[in-house]
Design a protein that fits this description.
There is one protein chain. The chain is an alpha/beta fold. It has helices at 35-45, 59-62, 65-72, 148-159, 174-184, 189-203, 213-219, 228-233, 241-254; strands spanning 4-10, 14-20, 26-30, 48-53, 75-79, 91-93, 98-101, 104-110, 119-123, 128-132, 135-136, 139-140, 166-169, 211-212. The strands form three sheets. Strands 1-2-3-4-5-6 form a six-stranded mixed sheet. A six-stranded mixed sheet has the order 7-8-9-10-13-14. The chain has a two-stranded antiparallel ribbon with strand order 11-12. Helix 5 runs antiparallel to helix 6 (189-203). The longest helix is centred in the last third of the chain and has 15 residues, at 189-203. The N and C termini lie far apart (44 Å). The model has no long low-confidence stretch (mean pLDDT 97). The structure holds zinc ion. Zinc ion (ZN) binds next to loops.
């Protein structure tokens, strides 16, 4: 039976998401921004929380762990490099480790840059990846604990996943990201059609997530820093991709 997911908002603009294995009832929360919306989603679905898969240590991804663990005695999986900054950790993981949620099999991809130990969880058979604050739709995370080279390499790892992989990220930032991206690639047809789609979704009160790796490759400037046209757009024709990426990221920080 295919995995099921449930997406819902938490805090101001965070996303919570549940991953459910219908064959045995196991359910993971990807990050735990706060307990109440996760409990509400569990109640609505009738699912039982068995695991929390943490992407990174920030409070808006870990604030609900203690309460949820108390209530559900769930297992908490977290990046080894940040485990000391995350409460209630049971299992630490690093690059290439396998994480199971019931019979669903995920692989850990280390994606440092936003934080130094940030990880993503890739469920290959389910065509799902949970990327936390590394990749957003039409954007990427701020470089709070990493340099452009580190983040660019992390984004390349995600870009290399199959195009039909569905991407769940940690925040609803898409409308603002599209607004910025159009300053870099105003003529990109895929970006322009994504911009229209985002307006439609947002005005209907719907999430713009999940996106796909394939869609992001065509429209997200942060995944396109090695394209000649994008380098030219930021005045770095022939420049190295990482420098183009750093320039786009710096512009977005000030946008
Ligand atoms: Zn974060």
């Amino acid at each position: 039976m295919p995995a099921e997911t449930r997406l819902f908002t938490c805090l101001k603009d965070n996303y919570g998401v549940l991953l459910h294995d219908p064959s045995n009832g196991a359910t993971a929360a990807i990050d735990a921004p706060e307990a109440a919306p996760i409990e509400a989603a569990l109640k609505e679905t009738g699912w039982r929380l068995t695991d929390i898969l943490v992407t990174h240590h920030h409070g808006d991804h870990t604030g609900g762990i203690v309460d949820l663990k108390k209530r559900y005695a769930c297992r908490v999986i977290a990046p080894r490099k940040e485990a000391q900054k995350i409460p209630g950790v049971d299992v630490t993981v690093r690059e290439g480790d396998i994480v199971t949620v019931g019979t669903l099999v995920g692989r850990v991809i280390e994606t440092p840059g936003h934080t130094s130990g940030h990880i993503a969880y890739w469920f290959k058979s389910e065509k799902l990846v949970f990327v936390g604050d590394t990749l957003f739709s039409i954007g990427c995370g701020r470089l709070l604990e990493g340099n452009p080279e580190t983040m660019w390499q992390s984004l390349l790892k995600l870009r290399n996943l199959p195009a039909d992989t569905q991407v769940y990220c940690g925040h609803e930032y898409t409308a603002a990201n599209v607004h910025f991206a159009l300053t870099i690639e105003p003529k990109n047809a895929a970006l322009r059609s994504r911009a229209e789609e985002v307006v439609r979704l947002c005005s209907a009160g719907k999430p713009t997530i999940p996106t796909t790796i394939g869609a992001e490759k065509t429209a997200n400037p942060f995944l396109r820093a090695d394209l000649h046209s994008v380098a030219s757009a930021v005045g770095l024709e022939g420049g190295p991709a990482v420098q183009v990426f750093a320039t786009i990221r710096a512009r977005k920080d000030k946008f």
